[in-house]
């Protein structure tokens, strides 16, 4: 009995540390709930009514989530705190080993192992380790070679706002869905694959859907820094125009190899509807999907993207003119709310 009591006392620091690491991992895992406010997620659910059609889109989402999910659980705790842990080498080795089983990727691989087979579980584990290596390398070297500093800025104050918004968009997962869709489609075409004439515009509109949620949180991406807009020598519509221009620039790069007129007009429609959310801007987290509102804003955005896009394909300039007019009106109307909040 005395030996058991001694063992429990010796294990208490390690157990306390593992409990804290587990709690931090759980909190971070909950942060991935932001995907439930992402338009692309609901589009995939709709497509999933035909499972074979949704497999490719689900694979893209899973590939992006693998990078943040494969992070080391111990890295959830700041390094300064880890140095203060009262652990000797043996206890540290035990914590290091057990903490690996707090990784969501290990749990996913274990589930696949028992439900599907060891080959897929092995592949998932290898992919997770590779994703962790990439994430670790990026976190270690990013402070020295901050790629965000290389983002250019157009001239003027509005140009600085555009660069700020580009940096914010690039630290969310939304544009990388569009990037993967564009690269896989373009690679398939360059490899000699043939797509139906109607397929390319549809894929391009899906790319617009992938980034359309960020049109709901144009100011939410700024966090508390949005209060500084009141100090700028700019009117609200000018600030909103800079953000819209940054959004459209990213979208244009993503849809350029696919289809432009219909998809670009659809993007203007998504912005027009997204402006209505300027009074409610939830805070967003870095390296997560942007979290918006599915009903009614997100649903209207998705409907408008495909309706306006197909309208441009069938009727041409008329839908373009009407959409641009609606966008300009929303820019003026909702621009006042940027500096009033």
Q: What's the SSE pattern? A: HHHHHHHHHHHHHH
Reported for the largest beta sheet, the result is: none
Q: How many distinct folded domains?
A: 2
Give the number of DSSP strands.
0
Strand content bin: under 5%
- From the spread of the alpha carbons, the general shape counts as globular
Gyration radius, in Å: 23 Å
Average pLDDT works out at 83
Count of helical segments? 14
Describe this structure in words.
By secondary structure, the chain is mostly helical. It folds into 2 domains: 2-145, no CATH class; 154-340, no CATH class. It has 14 helices and no strands. Helix 11 packs antiparallel against helix 12 (261-274). The model has no long low-confidence stretch (mean pLDDT 83).
Report a brief summary of the structure.
This protein is mainly alpha-helical. 68% of the residues lie in helices and 0% in strands. It has 14 helices and no strands.
Essential attributes:
mainly alpha
List the helices and strands and how they pair.
Blueprint: H1 2-30, H2 39-47, H3 51-69, H4 79-82, H5 89-99, H6 104-115, H7 118-141, H8 157-170, H9 174-190, H10 199-212, H11 236-255, H12 261-274, H13 294-315, H14 317-340
Helix pairs in contact: 1-5, 2-3, 2-10, 3-7, 3-9, 6-7, 8-11, 9-10, 9-11, 10-12, 10-13, 11-12, 11-14, 12-13, 12-14, 13-14
């Amino acid at each position: 009995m005395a030996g058991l009591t001694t063992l429990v006392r010796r294990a208490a620091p390690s157990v306390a540390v593992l409990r804290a690491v587990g709690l931090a991992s759980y909190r971070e895992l909950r942060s991935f709930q932001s995907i439930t406010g992402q338009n692309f997620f609901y589009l995939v659910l709709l497509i999933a009514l035909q499972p074979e059609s949704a497999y490719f889109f689900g694979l893209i989402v899973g590939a992006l989530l693998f990078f943040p999910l494969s992070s080391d659980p111990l890295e959830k705790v700041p390094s300064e705190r880890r140095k203060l842990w009262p652990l000797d080498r043996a206890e540290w080795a035990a914590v290091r080993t057990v903490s690996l089983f707090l990784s969501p990727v290990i749990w996913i691989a274990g589930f696949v192992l028992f439900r599907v087979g060891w080959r897929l579980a092995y592949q998932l584990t290898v992919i997770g380790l590779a994703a962790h290596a990439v994430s670790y390398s990026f976190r270690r070297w990013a402070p020295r070679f901050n790629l965000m500093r290389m983002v250019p800025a157009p001239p003027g104050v509005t140009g600085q706002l555009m660069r700020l918004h580009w940096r914010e968009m690039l630290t969310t997962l939304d544009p990388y869905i569009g990037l993967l869709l564009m690269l896989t489609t373009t690679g398939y075409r360059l490899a000699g694959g043939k797509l139906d004439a109607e397929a390319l515009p549809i894929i391009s509109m899906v790319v617009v859907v992938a980034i359309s949620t960020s049109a709901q949180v144009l100011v939410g991406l700024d966090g508390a820094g949005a209060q500084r807009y009141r100090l700028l020598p700019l009117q609200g519509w000018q600030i909103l125009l800079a953000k819209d221009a940054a959004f459209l620039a990213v979208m244009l790069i993503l849809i350029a190899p696919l289809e432009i007129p219909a998809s670009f007009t659809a993007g203007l429609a998504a912005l027009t509807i997204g402006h209505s959310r300027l009074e409610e801007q939830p805070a967003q987290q870095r390296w997560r999907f942007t979290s918006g509102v599915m009903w009614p804003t997100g649903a209207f955005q998705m409907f408008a993207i495909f309706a306006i896009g197909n309208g441009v394909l069938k009727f041409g300039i008329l839908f373009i003119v009407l959409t641009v007019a609606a966008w300009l009106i929303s820019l003026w109307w909702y621009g006042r709310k940027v500096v009033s909040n």
